[in-house]
Write a structure and sequence with these properties.
With 119 residues, the protein is α+β, with helices and mostly antiparallel strands. It has one domain: Zincin-like. The protein contains 5 helices and 4 strands. InterPro entries: Put_Metallopep.
Length: 119
C-alpha cells in the first residue's frame, strides 16, 4: 500500500470544518492522505494518536484521515463529503487524540450536517 499527502482532501476538510462550524476541530492538526493499493472495503478511515504516544513524544493531539483511492475517488461529490463528515465525527469534542466509536449518538449527526451543507 502506498500513501501520499492529499492536499485536495485537506482543503475539503478545512472547508467542511468552516462551513459546518465545527469549531472544536483544529484543522491544522488533521492531516489527510490518499492510499493506493489497499484491499480494505472502507472508503476512508481516521487514525488518532493515543494519549500514551502524545506523552511519550511530547506532542499535541493529531489525526490522520486516509481516503482509499480505489473506493473514495469514484464517489460522487456528495458521497465524498458524507464520508469526510463521517470521519470527522470520530474526533471527540475535546480533540484529545482519541476516537469516538460508531456507537455514540454523535455519529447520527452526519446526515444533519450534510443537510446543513446543502442548504
Amino acid at each position: 500500500m502506498e500513501l501520499q499527502p492529499a492536499p485536495d482532501i485537506d482543503k475539503e476538510v478545512k472547508n467542511l470544518i468552516e462551513i459546518l462550524s465545527l469549531d472544536y476541530l483544529n484543522h491544522r492538526r488533521i492531516f489527510c492522505f490518499r492510499s493506493h493499493g489497499s484491499t480494505s472495503r472502507a472508503r476512508a478511515r481516521i487514525w488518532g494518536l493515543p494519549r500514551i504516544f502524545l506523552i511519550a513524544l511530547g506532542c499535541q493531539p493529531a489525526y490522520c484521515i486516509e481516503v482509499i483511492s480505489e473506493k473514495f475517488d469514484r464517489l460522487s461529490e456528495k458521497d465524498k463529503q458524507y464520508t469526510l463528515i463521517h470521519e470527522l465525527m470520530h474526533i471527540p469534542k475535546n480533540f484529545s487524540g482519541a476516537l469516538v466509536s460508531h456507537l455514540i449518538r454523535n455519529m447520527s449527526k452526519v446526515n444533519i450536517l450534510l443537510k446543513k451543507l446543502y442548504e
